[in-house]
User: Which sequence fits this backbone?
């Protein structure tokens, strides 16, 4: 099955009432762990790579790793850009072979968010990729805690969700319903009634961000109420680091880095498997198969997306020409979003 975009995997989830897990990856071990867990459970899956992860790893480098793993997968795998706030990053990700992108304009005034997200939707669709936007704000627990009253102020209203989705043409819509990014314990409950109300007026799959901190019961309820894509990053990072810590504690003299990375990869894979089961996407791989398997080919310096219904040009510049600006390809000084 291999490469897919959001529409390939979310349409059935939306129609049938389950959610597809969207798991953040920062390196090869994360990508392999996520795809391996999905294959073991015959589940469609979304590997997402944030703008911050691209700043860390390099867009072509991380895309090459993700695509190599996805292309061989026995299940549909979406390679999705997460939380992009810059159009140049969106453009470079699409050219590097991402099959889907998210533009996060949630900190912008409504009209600016509509304008920039619409541009991203156009860029994505021209390349045969899909686009997610966000309305309402999902905050971060990195520096402070949030009261329910404060969260309520940031939550998405059905009216703005309806207007935002219809004016931008997004394929999936991220909403703020009480979850908070970067929580290290599962303590949050989301507003399921609000999810149902938004679902009633928005015709595209809804996305829950900050899902690491949401309790299992509330996650199940959120999916029942209309969430079709569930984003998880922090929990996987904790599992990865936890495995490294215990491996090193067990044998502080270990000299082969693969020993610790192997344990870390296993830990991420079992955590992803648990989430897939919880979200109900196990054994749903076939539902997203064959509808729009994406193959990107480089032909005469042009990146061409070949899809079932014909071909669409991404552009006439080579990937190298567009990849030069911006990426620091090193450690970022400020704290990444994911
Ligand atoms: O976009 C990614 C997510 O919203 C992940 O949030 O790190 O709190 O699980 P999390
Ligand atoms: Zn997020």
Assistant:
């Amino acid at each position: 099955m291999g490469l897919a975009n959001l529409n390939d995997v979310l349409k059935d989830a939306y129609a049938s009432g389950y959610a597809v897990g969207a798991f953040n990856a920062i390196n090869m071990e994360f990508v392999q762990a996520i795809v391996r867990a999905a294959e073991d459970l015959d589940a469609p899956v979304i590997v997402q790579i944030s703008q911050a992860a691209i700043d860390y790893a390099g867009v072509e480098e991380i895309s090459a790793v993700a695509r190599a793993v996805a292309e061989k997968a026995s299940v549909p795998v979406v390679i999705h850009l997460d939380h992009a706030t810059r159009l140049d990053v969106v453009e470079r990700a699409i050219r590097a072979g991402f099959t889907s992108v998210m533009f996060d304009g949630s900190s912008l005034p409504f009209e600016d968010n509509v304008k920039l997200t619409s541009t991203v939707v156009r860029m994505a669709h021209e390349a045969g990729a899909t686009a997610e936007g966000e309305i309402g704000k999902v905050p971060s627990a990195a520096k402070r805690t949030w009261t329910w009253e404060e969260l309520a102020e940031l939550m998405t209203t059905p009216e703005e969700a309806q207007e935002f989705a219809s004016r931008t043409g997004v394929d999936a819509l991220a909403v703020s319903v009480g979850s908070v990014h970067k929580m290290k314990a599962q303590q949050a409950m989301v507003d399921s009634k609000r999810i149902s109300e938004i679902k009633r007026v928005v015709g595209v799959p809804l996305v829950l961000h900050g899902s690491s901190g949401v309790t299992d019961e509330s996650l199940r309820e959120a999916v029942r109420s209309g969430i079709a894509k569930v984003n998880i990053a922090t929990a996987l990072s904790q599992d990865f680091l936890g495995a490294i810590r215990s491996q090193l504690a067990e044998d502080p003299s270990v000299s082969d880095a693969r020993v610790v990375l192997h344990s870390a990869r296993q830990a991420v894979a079992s955590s992803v498997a648990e989430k897939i089961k919880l979200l109900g996407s196990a054994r749903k791989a076939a539902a997203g198969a064959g509808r729009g398997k994406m193959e990107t080919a480089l032909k005469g310096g042009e990146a061409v997306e070949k899809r079932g219904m014909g071909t669409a040009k991404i552009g006439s510049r080579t990937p190298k020409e567009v990849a030069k600006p911006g990426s620091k390809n090193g450690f970022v000084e400020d704290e990444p979003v994911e």
Summary: The CA atoms of residues 290 and 311 lie 16 Å apart. Residues 290-337 have pLDDT under 50 and may be disordered. DSSP finds 13 helices and twelve strands in the chain. The domain at 2-323 is CATH 3.20.20.70 (TIM Barrel).
